[in-house]
Amino acid sequence: MKFSRPNLFLGKAILFMLLLSWSSFAADVKTLEIGASAPDFSLPGTDGKTYSLKSFANAKVLAIVFTCNHCPTAQAYEDRIIALANEYKAKGVTLIAVSPNDPKAIALDELGYSDMSDSFEEMKIRVKEKGYTFPYLYDGATQKMSRAYGPIATPHLFIFDKSRKLQYVGRLDGAEKPGKANAEDARNALDALLAGNPVATPVTKTFGCSTKWSEKSEWAVKAPLEWAKEPVNMNIIDDKGIAELLANKTDKVKLINVWATWCGPCVTEMPEFVNINRMYRRRDFEFITISADKPDKKDKAQELLKRMQASGQNYIYNSEDKYKLIEAIDPKWQGALPYTLLIAPGGKILYRTQGTIVPQKMKRMIVEQVGRVY
After folding, report:
1. Which of 106, 70, 67, 99 minimizes the C-alpha distance to 217?
2. Beta strands per DSSP E along 78-152
3. For the segment 130-155, what is each residue's pLDDT rounded down to a tens digit?
4. What is the pTM of this model?
5. What are the φ and ψ backbone dihedral angles of 285, each rounded to 5 degrees?
């Protein structure tokens, strides 16, 4: 699609106004100050219940941590948050987690450290996988609670006393990397309040992914337009080239999908691979397609990939001998399409499947290889 100069000018003007409105909005969101009363809220939890401040009226101390699924810093602190909640529960402390992010404000290429985004349904998955023993509330729909509390990043901890006055706000501890700290700042604040003492350091800075406010969705909207401009190329590959791919003498995890234009399941699942590529291609990861179409169908195969916006490495096998292709790819492959391999650096096959993949399972395997934290 071509745009005239007036339309381009208008587009830039609109983007400028969006940036201005976001800057103004960001300045309007203020973090609660020490001594402030906890604003009330009404939010759905992943357990099917609806929670408000009254739901936690019996707690001596209420700890609210704003966190999320996708942020590597939030994931780095997950186990410490779980341990904190479990250890202090018997002391009268109630900990709850709240996801402040609007999922629509998160683009695929911001999910490179996770296997899921911040939707309510994905939060339910994370709770089961990690074994959360505390409520995990969703504020991504309206962000009303988050706007009232003002978390600037995930995770961001707010601790309230029995009268629900804010006594601590900031980080859990000063070491993001797991195993380097044990939520010392949070523990010091909790111990002080439980002992009836003031918190020695009531305010600390917090480090993590910025809160994804709904007004900050311009990149999530713009990204697909930019991805559509990426070139989609296709090269011929022979047995030697396939052997080199499989040997994987790189530091990247390789995801190889063998497909064909005449294979319905192949075409149907290709958008899932495109999404996976957009999620992880900034990491030590590479997505590769190998077409099993006849070599003279190269243009047709490439055109289909263009429509799919599959801008990874794309190849078509140089021979019509499909049995030769099968042996070149994987002797364990029985020949049905699609066929997918996940290969570690050095050539170890981490996963192989004949037939379509389960996208969530594949994302989990990839992120476990490339890492969830910095």
Report:
1. 106
2. 93-99, 136-138
3. 999 999 999 999 999 999 999 999 99
4. 0.88
5. -150, 145
